[in-house]
């Protein structure tokens, strides 16, 4: 899973006006753990699918695609399909946890939105490192281009 995801979400919990009490810490450890886990896994897998090829060409560490290929001896295409299946399963689990959690609806939405954002950024490749193409066009259309009403 994404290393920074749990830390970012824990900080966001506090920054969104929640205070850490014994009760909220207990909720985060019990019900919130699964919520944060599935969201962080989606962030990691979408990032890997979008960036692994370019990062491997730069000599970066192996990503989930390469790890899957090394573990099973499968082709790159088969590994990508397996990662996509893992993503589909992770989205289902995250949805279940969002409805099951006893944490605030706002926190559950924030965790869900973190996964959605990652999916949006990386679904057409590296939407951060290359900053061109589909992701750039989406961001430009949302925040820069004017539209008539």
Shape: globular
- The first-to-last residue Cα distance is 42 Å
**Tally of separate helices:** 6
User: What share of the residues lie within helices?
Assistant: over 70%
Radius of gyration: 17 Å
Strand proportion: under 5%
The CATH class assignment is Mainly Alpha
Q: Structural class, from secondary structure content? A: mainly alpha
What report would you give on this structure?
With 149 residues, this protein is an all-alpha fold. Helix content is 74%, strand content 0%. The protein has six helices and no strands. α2 runs parallel beside α5 (105-122).
Draw up the topology in text.
Blueprint: H1 4-15, H2 22-57, H3 64-72, H4 76-100, H5 105-122, H6 134-143
Helix pairs in contact: 1-2, 2-4, 2-5, 3-4, 4-5
Put the structure in a nutshell.
With 149 residues, the protein is mainly α. The chain has helices at 4-15, 22-57, 64-72, 76-100, 105-122, 134-143. It has a single domain (5-144), classed as Farnesyl Diphosphate Synthase, CATH 1.10.600.10.
């Amino acid at each position: 899973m994404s290393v920074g995801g749990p830390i970012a979400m824990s900080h966001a919990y506090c920054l969104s006006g929640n205070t850490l009490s014994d009760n909220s810490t207990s909720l985060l450890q019990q019900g919130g753990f699964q919520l944060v886990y599935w969201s962080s896994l989606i962030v990691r897998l979408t990032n890997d699918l979008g960036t692994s090829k370019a990062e491997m060409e730069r000599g970066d560490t192996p990503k989930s695609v390469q790890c899957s290929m090394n573990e099973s001896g499968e082709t790159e295409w088969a590994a990508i399909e397996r990662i996509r299946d893992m993503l589909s399963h992770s989205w289902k689990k995250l949805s279940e946890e969002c409805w099951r959690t006893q944490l605030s609806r706002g926190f559950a939405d924030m965790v869900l939105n973190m996964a959605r954002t990652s999916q949006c950024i990386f679904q057409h490749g590296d939407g951060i490192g290359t900053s061109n193409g589909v992701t750039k066009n989406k961001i430009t259309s949302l925040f820069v281009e004017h539209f008539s009403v």
